[in-house]
Structure formats: C-alpha cells, structure tokens
Specification:
CATH class: Mainly Alpha
Oligomer: single chain
Radius of gyration: 18 Å
Order of helices and strands: HHHHHH
Strand content: under 5%
Largest sheet: none
Number of strands: 0
Structural class: mainly alpha
CATH architecture: Up-down Bundle
Number of domains: 1
Length: about 190
C-alpha cells in the first residue's frame, strides 16, 4: 500500500471517528460545535482525497477500497450519535434508511465488482447530491443549536429527510443498473 496524500486523508477521516464521538459526548457547552466541526473537516477530506487522487493520478486499489469504507463508517457513527442523543422515530427512521442503504449498495457494488461489472453501479449525480445533503444534515444535527436565528436542528432534520429520499432513489438507480448489467451477462 502506497502512502499517498489522498490515502493519508482517508486514514485521517477514520481517525476522526473516535474524536467525533468523544467530543459529542463531552459535557461542555462547546462540545456540539466541536463535534460538528470535526465532522465538517472529515466531510471535506472525503471530497479532497478523491479530487487529489484524480488530479495527481494517485488512484489506487487500496484507496478505492478504503475511501467508501471511511465514508460509511463516519456517517453511520455520526447518525448513531445523533439518534442516541435524540431518540425519536422522526430521527431514527431516516437514519436507518441511510445506514441500511449504505450497507445494501456496498454489497451490491462488491457483488458487481466480482462479476466484472463495477462500472455499472458507479456513483452518479444523484449519489453526489445525496452525499451533500447527508453531510450537511449531519453537521447541522451535531451542532444542534440555533445560529443567528436559524433553526439549525429543524433544517438539519429536513435535509436528513431529503438525504433519505435521495438515498432510496439512488439505491433504485443502482439496483436498476445492476439488473440491466446482469441481464446483459445472462444473455451474452
């Protein structure tokens, strides 16, 4: 495994997971803001590592494996933290949809890769929009407090529902693409 800057950024995102959890649970008035800041930094490294890997031609099989794992881990942990802090169905349902989709689509991508059809379930625009809504929602839900008169929690919850809807839609797109690829394989 080559230690490139994109791979180091991915490892940083993984190392930030326990920091995020510890900060969120601290009984300090600044804990939520600090946890939200760590999540935002982790989200930015997600974008930056992919950008740099493509720009500097430093894509690697290990990076292609580790990057989505890091993304799913930090999103799942952050959603669990938020649900534990506010255990309501209004929050638990979209969190479960998002976490469930991440597991299902990861399994689908792995299966399609084994069949040599990984590109048939590549990330598209809907997935990128979902990720943006999801990361913004989670950062706002971690922050929790109104800011300059803006109802941060409510905006975060609304964005989480948007992310959950995009999650289901993108999963349907990926599943449809996989089915078409499987049909081509079975006919050819």
């Amino acid at each position: 495994m080559e230690m490139t800057l994109p791979n180091l950024l991915t490892w940083l995102r993984i190392l930030l997971i326990p920091v995020l959890g510890l900060l969120f649970l601290l009984p300090a008035p600044w804990a939520n803001a600090a946890a939200a800041a760590v999540f935002v930094i982790a989200s930015l490294t997600d974008w930056l590592d992919g950008y740099l890997a493509r720009r500097w031609n430093q894509s690697s099989p290990f990076g292609a494996f580790l990057d989505p794992v890091a993304d799913k881990l930090i999103v799942a942990i952050a959603l669990i933290i938020v649900v534990v802090e506010s255990p309501t169905a209004w929050l638990a349902v979209p969190a479960a949809v998002i976490i469930g989709r991440e597991i299902a689509v990861s399994a689908l991508r792995e299966w399609m890769a084994e069949l040599g059809q990984r590109s048939s379930v590549a990330v598209g625009l809907t997935g990128k929009l979902k990720t943006t809504a999801q990361m913004t929602a989670i950062a706002l839900l971690l922050y929790r407090h109104d800011f300059a008169g803006w109802p941060v929690w409510e905006i975060g919850l609304g964005l989480l529902y948007l992310a959950a809807a995009l999650t289901l839609y993108s999963m349907a797109l990926y599943t449809g693409a996989a089915m078409r690829a499987l049909n081509r394989i079975s006919q050819g």
